[in-house]
Amino acid sequence: MIVLRNVSKIFNARSGPVTAVDNVNLQVEQGQIYGIIGYSGAGKSTLIRLLNGLEKPTSGSVVVAGQDIAQASGEALRQARLKISMVFQHFNLLWSRTVSENIAFSLQIAGAPKAAIQRRVQELIELVGLNGKEQAYPSQLSGGQKQRVGIARALANSPDVLLCDEATSALDPQTTDAILDLLLDINRQLKLTIVLITHEMHVVRKICHRVAVMEAGRIVEEGEVLSVFTHPQQPITRQFVKQTTEYSSADTPFNADLVDAAAGAVLKLTFVGQSTRQPIVGELTLKYALPFNILHGKMTQTANGTFGELWLQVPASGSQLENILADLHAHAISTEVVKNV
Ligand SMILES: Nc1ncnc2c1ncn2[C@@H]1O[C@H](COP(=O)(O)OP(=O)(O)OP(=O)(O)O)[C@@H](O)[C@H]1O
C-alpha cells in the first residue's frame, strides 16, 4: 500500500541544511497498522507529511496506493490526497460547526448530494460512538470525543490510508486506550491501512503490527512489534521498550532484597507466542527437584501476540544450571543469566 524508496528530505534552514529524513526505505502492507516511533526531532512529522504530499522529498520516491505522491501535482495530487486522510494531535476541528457539520465538511466540498452526506455522517457517528452528540459544538466535547470527531471526519471520504499524527498525545491514559481501541476496531472492520507516529511505545504495543524506530532522520530498527519488544537491537529501541515496563533503569523489576545471595543464579526467561502456554516452572521443579523461587513475572499483549517475562532464582550452578538452560531453550524460551550467584 505504501512504499518509500531512498527517501531524503533536506530543509534549507537559515543556519544551514537540515536533513530531517535521511535515506528512508519503508513498506506498509494493505490493512496493516504501522507505527513510527521516535523522540522529538527524529523526523517523524516530516516523514508523515511526505506520505500525504504536504512535503516533497529532496530525493527518493513515495508511492501510496500505486500513485507516486512525490511526482504528482495539481489535480492528480489533489485526488490522491483525498484517499490519504490525517488525524491530528490537537484535533484541528472547526469550532463554529457542530459535530455533524465537521464530519460533513469534506463531503460538502467534494459536492456530494445532501441526502448522501446525511447518510454518511450518521454512519460515521455510529462507527465512532458519538450518537447523541450530532448537534454539539467541539467546545462542548471532551478530548476523547473531539478525537472521535477527528477520526470520523478523516474517514468521510473512505480513504485508503489513515495517517495519525500523535493522535493520542493530548489525551489522558484511559482516553488514549479508548481511542486506540477505536482505531483497532476501524482497522479490523474497514481493513484500513493506518500509519501512526508517536513517541509512546504503549501506543505501538497496543495496536501496531509493525514498527519503525526513527533517530536523527533514519530508521534504525524495523520489524514486527512482538519481535522488536522481545529482541530490541538498538539502544534507543531498548529505551522505548522500557517505557512500557514499570521499571525505568537497566535494573531488574523486583526488589533486590528478594534475592538470597546464597540461593543460586537469577534468570530472566522470555516466552513468546506458544511458549507462554507451557507450565515450565512446574516441569523444571519436578525434573530437578529444586525449589525455583519466582521473583517477578508479567505478560504483555501486543497486536501480533503475547510475550511473558519471568525472573527466577534457581539454586543451581555449573553443569546443572547448563542443563536447565538447555531445557528452557528446547522449549523455545529465551534465557538471560542476570546474576550468577
Ligand atoms: N520546515 C522546516 N524547516 C527547517 N527545518 C525543519 C523544518 N521542519 C522540520 N525541520 C527540522 O527537521 C528535523 C525533524 O523535525 P520533525 O518535526 O520531522 O521531527 P519530529 O520527530 O516530528 O519531532 P516532533 O515530535 O518534535 O514534531 C528537526 O531538526 C526540525 O528542526
From TrEMBL:
It is a peripheral membrane protein. One of its GO terms (biological process) is amino acid transport. InterPro entries: AAA+_ATPase, ABC_transporter-like_ATP-bd, ABC_transporter-like_CS, ACT-like_dom_sf, MetN_ABC, MetN_ABC_transporter-like, NIL_domain, P-loop_NTPase. One of its GO terms (cellular component) is plasma membrane. Gene3D superfamilies: 3.30.70.260, P-loop containing nucleotide triphosphate hydrolases. It comes from the Bacteria. PROSITE patterns: ABC_TRANSPORTER_1 (PS00211), ABC_TRANSPORTER_2 (PS50893). GO terms for molecular function: ATP binding; ATP hydrolysis activity. It is found in: Cell inner membrane. Residues 2-241 form the ABC transporter domain. Its main location: membrane. Keywords: Amino-acid transport, ATP-binding, Cell membrane, Membrane, Nucleotide-binding, Translocase, Transport. Belongs to the ABC transporter superfamily. Drug exporter-2 (TC 3.A.1.117) family. Part of the ABC transporter FtsEX involved in cellular division. Important for assembly or stability of the septal ring. This is Cell division ATP-binding protein FtsE.
